[in-house]
DNA sequence: AAAACGGGGCG
DNA sequence: CGCCCAGTTTT
């Protein structure tokens, strides 16, 4: 945990004191006039703040309100929650989702009884020790219930600050969140920290929304760099996460009569280039049952040329057990391997084949350099990828070790 | 620091 | 149905 003073020194806010004061006044004036009047804003009972914050983590305000009333009526304080039985809790939570969180709340209530003598802890660091309370909820309770100048940094506050200052760094990075937290430390109104946080939450939910396509004038526009430049829609900057695309592969485990495996070195154009693998062929759909042809054809389509150059005839490739139809369950028996790259996910289905000795080889004229037959005992002498190691670990009808 | 978790809501 | 969300927990 980086200390507050360290962060402020590392990231001084690029505003004058007058600007900061004007920002607070503008924000709180808007909140006093326009902010939402919500049930848990009636008083500063930390228990009620806590219950509402946990509920709001997962559901919209309108949905939470009836649940909130019911919960508080049934379990009005920490002591009641600490003693509540599981069925009561689940009943009160039914329909909200994330049921483990209400279980965490009961654990936290018991922590309050045992670790804090039943007195709701006030210090941010103490709040963090409670099950289910992380940085956001600890900040919300410390500021709203106990008037401490702690930011409640949720998605709303991150979005607003990133727009105000046009923060170009990826907000998913820890360093960027530190910078935003540092700015919030300097912005938060020490006189009304709870209202300050709730004002920003309301602003984020009602005005400076995520999909703010048309940058309307808004109450904070004079403080909003992204409004001045009409760039609000560009913030917050998030890592262009190439959503990992999913791909299915058949991994052919081909063994000859001598017990050697056929392996292929990936070319420069491929992923994992230079490393040796069982021949892999992408498959765009997985079928319930496949005929021999449906299983062998993809291999032949991609590598038939090479296999012929190796002296392998199509007919010499036999499915294990020599069956014509393969059920999906047969596949499961041979195992699958999942491999995750940063940008793609490969699901590999092992396909064990044997090369029929009787019609095994013809003479090879020009041996393709990218293919070898290799003894299982020598697999550790060639460079292979983690994926290939996983394939070797997968359940096979024969033991490659 | 990154991944796992989690179940309702959404396209 | 599969993906996404937004925080906490776990590794």
TrEMBL record:
<keyword id="KW-0479">Metal-binding</keyword>
<dbReference type="GO" id="GO:0035485">
    <property type="term" value="F:adenine/guanine mispair binding"/>
</dbReference>
<keyword id="KW-0411">Iron-sulfur</keyword>
<protein>
    <recommendedName>
        <fullName>Adenine DNA glycosylase</fullName>
        <ecNumber>3.2.2.31</ecNumber>
    </recommendedName>
</protein>
<dbReference type="GO" id="GO:0000701">
    <property type="term" value="F:purine-specific mismatch base pair DNA N-glycosylase activity"/>
</dbReference>
<dbReference type="InterPro" id="IPR023170">
    <property type="entry name" value="HhH_base_excis_C"/>
</dbReference>
<keyword id="KW-0408">Iron</keyword>
<dbReference type="GO" id="GO:0034039">
    <property type="term" value="F:8-oxo-7,8-dihydroguanine DNA N-glycosylase activity"/>
</dbReference>
<dbReference type="InterPro" id="IPR000445">
    <property type="entry name" value="HhH_motif"/>
</dbReference>
<dbReference type="GO" id="GO:0032357">
    <property type="term" value="F:oxidized purine DNA binding"/>
</dbReference>
<dbReference type="Pfam" id="PF14815">
    <property type="entry name" value="NUDIX_4"/>
</dbReference>
<dbReference type="GO" id="GO:0051539">
    <property type="term" value="F:4 iron, 4 sulfur cluster binding"/>
</dbReference>
<comment type="similarity">
    <text>Belongs to the Nth/MutY family.</text>
</comment>
<dbReference type="GO" id="GO:0006298">
    <property type="term" value="P:mismatch repair"/>
</dbReference>
<keyword id="KW-0004">4Fe-4S</keyword>
<comment type="function">
    <text>Adenine glycosylase active on G-A mispairs. MutY also corrects error-prone DNA synthesis past GO lesions which are due to the oxidatively damaged form of guanine: 7,8-dihydro-8-oxoguanine (8-oxo-dGTP).</text>
</comment>
<dbReference type="GO" id="GO:0046872">
    <property type="term" value="F:metal ion binding"/>
</dbReference>
<keyword id="KW-0326">Glycosidase</keyword>
<dbReference type="Pfam" id="PF00633">
    <property type="entry name" value="HHH"/>
</dbReference>
<dbReference type="InterPro" id="IPR044298">
    <property type="entry name" value="MIG/MutY"/>
</dbReference>
<keyword id="KW-0378">Hydrolase</keyword>
<dbReference type="InterPro" id="IPR029119">
    <property type="entry name" value="MutY_C"/>
</dbReference>
<dbReference type="InterPro" id="IPR005760">
    <property type="entry name" value="A/G_AdeGlyc_MutY"/>
</dbReference>
<dbReference type="InterPro" id="IPR011257">
    <property type="entry name" value="DNA_glycosylase"/>
</dbReference>
<dbReference type="InterPro" id="IPR003265">
    <property type="entry name" value="HhH-GPD_domain"/>
</dbReference>
<dbReference type="GO" id="GO:0006284">
    <property type="term" value="P:base-excision repair"/>
</dbReference>
<keyword id="KW-0234">DNA repair</keyword>
<dbReference type="Pfam" id="PF00730">
    <property type="entry name" value="HhH-GPD"/>
</dbReference>
<keyword id="KW-0227">DNA damage</keyword>
<dbReference type="InterPro" id="IPR015797">
    <property type="entry name" value="NUDIX_hydrolase-like_dom_sf"/>
</dbReference>
<feature type="domain" description="HhH-GPD">
    <location>
        <begin position="55"/>
        <end position="206"/>
    </location>
</feature>
